[in-house]
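INFO  loader      accepted 1 record
INFO  loader      residues=292
INFO  predictor   begin
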Amino acid sequence: MLIARVIAEPATLSAFGADAVHALESAGAHVHSAELLPDFGDVLELAISGDRAAARSAIEATLAPVDLLLSTGLPRMPGVFVSDMDSTMIGQECIDELADFAGIKGQIAAITERAMLGELDFAEALTERVRLLGGLSEDAIQQCLDQRIRPMPGARVLVETLKANGCVTVLVTGGFHQFADPVAGWLGFERVVGNRLATSKGRLTGELAGDIVDSTVKLQVLQDEVSRCDGVPSLATGDGANDIPMLVAADYGFAYHAKPKARAASNGAIDRGDLTSVLKLLGIARSEWVTD
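INFO  predictor   done
INFO  writer      dumping tokens
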């Protein structure tokens, strides 16, 4: 049985009826039940059998715009949460903002966009962008953090609520420790995995210190944490092509305001709300949310 949870406009959900059910069943998804979650008046839960892809397309066409999660069986509280950072937990791409301090934001942002769309090899694109930053003052990192980098709405509530319910939280990024470590502190992540910009005499060298964190590493981090925690349900959030393997591997993989390839590969998508939509779709009652 496939459980589909959908957040949509209240007026749209209140009008959900025979016509919507007919549209879903015409797409090959038999609707067994449809009801609002008790704690959330804007979350519709559907019990469906049939083709997953067809059901998702029909739901999105019938109720758009939506946030959604499709899972096999009722969603459970995850025991591991692994998330991307840039454009997922924060609203910026750190390397693009740092490039602005070097006067080359347009050049680097164009490479970033193509890498996120999956049009460029991630490692090659990262190496090229870091090379272009060579010679920039190390002080620009702190200036960028102070002036440009801001958490996504709902990010801290999501992380702290999951932690309060015993979930292990890991921030894993193709970005840089110089940004990810402070961001993890702001949001409450317990562990950080990322790349590191090499520096010398107060300036960026244009190289990375250590191995590159790419999609393979992100996936491995998720798998290792799940194994360490005895196979608990897993949650992942991300937005770009580099996140796809971990989004697919997670029990609940949410593409957050994501690029098309990442969105298509995931069983969850947040397109209209903030990161607290993840809590709602998992069915975590508002009384359990950590909002301090």
